[in-house]
Amino acid sequence: MISRRAFVAGSIALLAGPLSARAQSTGKVHRIGLLAASRQAVDNLKEGLAVLGHREGQSFVIEQRDVEGHFELIPAAVDSLVNLPVDVFVVGGSEYVQAVKNATRTIPVVFTNVGDPVEQGFIASYAKPGGNITGVTNMVSELTGKWMESATASASWAPEGAGVVGALASASG
After folding, report:
1. Using one digit for the tens of pLDDT, what is the confidence trace for 31-82?
2. Which residue in 3, 14, 1, 2 sits closest to 111, CA to CA?
3. What ranges in 27-168 are assigned the alpha helix state H?
4. What is the DSSP letter of 21?
5. Per-domain boundaries in the chain
């Protein structure tokens, strides 16, 4: 299973080549607009960029906005980043992706923690996302039924009437 660190490094790699070339040739420090709900997301992003040879303050700076669970504040947070402006958005969650999509069609967006980006209208297809939005989905909602089916089939040894299924997950990836 892919770790969050590997995911962030891979996601940013989509944009790191051009970022590296421009940073070396122009000396520009690129602004990354980060919309995520955890300090760990910032640390993972920095670590992923460091693996790719980027240093905070030299080739990039992170402009983070955290609405602390107040989803009604997301549009204002997005607008503040669009107005800086940022060079790329890295966002975690459908609410953030929708707000960025509503605010800009030109600033690139890399997302995570989105159930089905095609169904939600964020991308045209997995093979050819189109537009300015791309990312990685875990498709948990699509797989839950299959996981339960597998758990039920493999628990044929369970006593009659057993109906509780437990699931363990790691928040750190």
Report:
1. 999 997 677 888 888 998 999 889 999 999 999 998 888 899 999 999 999 9
2. 14
3. 39-51, 74-83, 94-103, 140-154
4. H
5. 4-152
pTM, full prediction: 0.69
Distance (Å, whole) CA 112 – CA 123: 13
Q: What stretch of H or E contains 22?
A: helix 4-26
Cα–Cα distance between 131 and 128 in angstroms, integer? 9
C-alpha dist (Å) from residue 19 to 12, 34, 133: 10, 16, 17
Of 128, 90, 129, 130, residue with least CA distance to 112: 90
Which token pair is 149? Answer: 């089916």
pLDDT tens-digit readout, 102-132: 999 999 999 988 888 999 999 998 888 999 9
Quickly count: other Cβ atoms within 10 Å of residue 56's Cβ: 14
Q: How far apart are the C-alpha atoms of 15 and 29, rounded to whole Å?
A: 14
Options 3.90.226.10, 3.60.15.10, 3.40.50.2300, 3.50.50.60; CATH for 4-152 is 3.40.50.2300
